[in-house]
């Protein structure tokens, strides 16, 4: 397909992209074990924006209705023609019109029953083809950072995926074909593009990292993964913004994390292999199987010693009858563990069921029972306990039980500090929640400290200009002023 400058080919596109990136202090190079990589050609300081990119195409997820353009959930009106897409007002509808006009026509022809089976991925693919056609026809302008050739350059891993996945992609491609009804369409190419989505598309999140949708960002997609990344990807609306989280010297590869980092090396490796089809060899992953790494994964995902006073970690005994504490030597029977795990499992199902029916109080009681059982089984720094505390925090916030919510928020912090890098947005956001709860509960000094920690991290990951960050700075200033006032009126030396 079509070269950006009219003389065809990805080479011209790449040259132009390199030129545009060089103005930003960046360059693309290829290395055999990773493919394309983004490198810096100058130093970047913590918090500095490395690259911003608008989505080539994006779709909101299906969790609730959202504006097609800005992903807001308020003041929505459904498109009266296709009955699929929502807009929050004229501005969003107008700016999306060129693309939606053609998508709307295509969707309007699809039967009511089939419309229900159209997933966000299918819509993303339909939009991808429509956008590239509109750019071909010069209805939508082509720019260096906004063209289909960049999509063509994305890695697809078509030769690495299994038969079952290929069949699924082929079925999805047929559905796209059915919607578009283009006689010249290449179904094999659509299937390959689904494979590209799988290892290149990004989940678009709000400022608090709640997922809103999916987008394709072909330039940001050049950035490779590290489990100890030097950069972070955040979204400002639909705009992808990559910021340095540490000082990045000239000549360094820019890296972000593709996955949830809370997990042992083996868990992270599994996630990367399954979705992105590579084995990570980053500075954390090369430690796989070493003593420290075994201990770390036993603490994060393994069982605790049966003796409550012992802080040892357990390893499977050679006879596979149970686990032995590596500190005091105490044996823990496999069946005893299995019984507790089964109890937790059944309670988790009941808690999710209660939540799905809006019985939050019941759900909180069940999660507290789960917590009790998990404390018998896992370490204080266990990922499983962390997830239970997160669930309890969320439910208790919704129930406006601030005191209990704060208790669980505080419990998560040491686990977050262990599983996330020092400057990770989730750690910053958790400090922010803690600070807000402490403030509401009148714990001024603690609130000031938590909000200060939150601001320290989030000013780097989120920048300083958004409404979200301005609100945080206002709260921090309020807490600081009240804290200083308390000190001066008490005359205490803090
Ligand atoms: C979003 S793309 C990144 C850019 C890619 N290198 C390219 O050439 O287009 C994701 C793919 O890059 C490769 N990749 C990313 N991070 C990697 C890493 N740390 N080690 C090896 N391969 C990596 C994997 O093939 C993965 O599926």
Please describe what this structure looks like.
This protein has 16 helices and 15 strands. It is of the alpha+beta class. The strands form six sheets. A three-stranded antiparallel β-sheet has the order 3-11-10, with no helix packed on it. Strands 4-8-7 form a three-stranded antiparallel β-sheet, with helices on one face. Strands 13-14-15 form a three-stranded antiparallel β-sheet. Mean pLDDT is 94; it is low at 1-8. It binds S-adenosylmethionine. The site of S-adenosylmethionine (SAM) has 18 residues, from strand 2, helix 7 and strand 9. S-adenosylmethionine (SAM) binds next to strand 2, helix 7 and strand 9. Residues 67-104 form the MYND-type domain. It comes from Anisodus acutangulus.
State the separation between the terminal residues, measured CA to CA. Answer: 67 Å
What is the number of E strands?
A: 15
List the ions, cofactors and other small molecules found in this model: S-adenosylmethionine
**Which shape, going by the Cα principal axes?**
globular
Main β-sheet description? 3 strands, antiparallel
Organism: Anisodus acutangulus
Domain SET: 24-259
Domain MYND-type: 67-104
Pfam families: SET (PF00856), zf-MYND (PF01753)
Keywords:
zinc-finger, single chain, binds S-adenosylmethionine, 16 helices, 3-stranded antiparallel β-sheet, zinc ion binding, alpha+beta, 494 residues, zinc, H3K4_H4K5_MeTrfase
Q: What secondary-structure arrangement, pairings included, does this model have?
A:
Layout: H1 10-23, E1 26-31, E2 35-40, E3 49-53, E4 57-60, E5 77-78, E6 86-87, H2 90-108, H3 112-116, H4 120-136, H5 148-152, H6 163-180, H7 187-200, E7 202-205, E8 211-216, E9 224-225, E10 231-236, E11 239-244, E12 255-256, H8 265-276, H9 291-301, E13 314-316, E14 322-325, E15 331-333, H10 334-356, H11 360-377, H12 383-398, H13 402-419, H14 425-440, H15 444-461, H16 467-490
Parallel strand pairs: 9-12
Antiparallel strand pairs: 1-2, 3-11, 4-8, 5-6, 7-8, 10-11, 13-14, 14-15
Helix pairs in contact: 2-4, 4-6, 6-7, 10-11, 11-12, 12-13, 13-14, 14-15, 15-16
S-adenosylmethionine binds at residues 33-36, 154-155, 157, 199-200, 221-222, 224-226, 276-278, 280.
